[in-house]
């Protein structure tokens, strides 16, 4: 049985990943709240990525898979955003990732896999995404460099979704008109589901798919690569 550690995994995509993985693995979720995990066999580690050090927690000695889920959606015009907003985005998305990876990298087993999250807005310029695109862009660069440095011991990949129906995106999808408008932006004419993204994370964590590293994989309904209106 493999040990899989998720940072943030009590809601949304992280919860779906953790729940599916727990069928065949020992899963640990380090997050502020236990959320939807209370009725599962998943081990919950109380942890706030912004204020605590993961090294102080009781981690498994050997880790075969690592997923960093914390993120943010802060879509505003650039001129209305303070420098503090940009710093906060970097703290939760990027520096939190760096800090936790430093804490677990020595525990990662030979052949293990790390999965991080970006956004389609890094590769496809979108208005009002300056702060989150900057933070997630840092993740993509970090992941590629980390994958190169730690090959062949471990694999590092990034998933870059478009809009997914999660608690984090609730205010963007809180009525039928918004939902339909967001769906129509994508060539596949629908908003992503939690399972669409979680299933790709499971694929990347699986040792059977061990010839994939340093990749940024778009799970975005085709919005980053297809222009069906041209």
TrEMBL record:
Gene3D superfamilies: NAD(P)-binding Rossmann-like Domain. InterPro entries: NAD(P)-bd_dom_sf, SDR_DHRS6-like, SDR_fam. Keywords: Oxidoreductase. CDD domains: SDR_c. One of its GO terms (molecular function) is oxidoreductase activity. Belongs to the short-chain dehydrogenases/reductases (SDR) family. This is SDR family oxidoreductase.
